[in-house]
Amino acid sequence: xxxxxxxxxxxxxxxxxxxxxxxxxxxxxxxxxxxxxxxxxxxxxxxxxxxxxxxxxxxxxxxxxxxxxxxxxxxxxxxxxxxxxxxxxxxxxxxxxxxxxxxxxxxxxxxxxxxxxxxxxxxxxxxxxxxxxxxxxxxxxxxxxxxxxxxxxxxxxxxxxxxxxxxxxxxxxxxxxxxxxxxxxxxxxxxxxxxxxxxxx
Length: 201
Description:
Blueprint: H1 5-24, H2 31-54, H3 64-83, H4 88-107, H5 114-139, H6 148-168, H7 176-200
Helix pairs in contact: 1-2, 1-7, 2-3, 2-7, 3-4, 3-5, 3-6, 4-5, 5-6, 6-7
């Protein structure tokens, strides 16, 4: 599917926003959140750049499930480490195990439902963390209200990750064509919400 000029512009915007966040948007954080956010926004940057260069067919890459898992997991680890100290160790262990489980179930041909279950659990927990934690912190007054934009972005990235993951394992939630049309707009919108939430929250 050939990218339109509008889609190329949107993807370029996503690349620039993610690059800004990596280079200037995470200054002053502790070491582990910086690493986690760098991986997450670096993943968004690479994903948008690959689609920009190779076209929407880049989403058909065998690595797309793994990539669509590491972005929300890394972002969730950064948020928990920075904002929820009591759950740091537990969440880091969950993220490592979740990533390894997704990688394993995608590397070995399985006829059962294990890949679907692993992806659903991993994406579900990471997505809910990114969605709920910023919004709850904002409601409690622990952060500025606009930090909740990170949560909105989290809902979108979680949705996008699930759509891609289920498409790659042959259990699509939406048709392939619908997903391909959606992603050039989803990436810059999600990235913009993250950048705005971190900057103004």
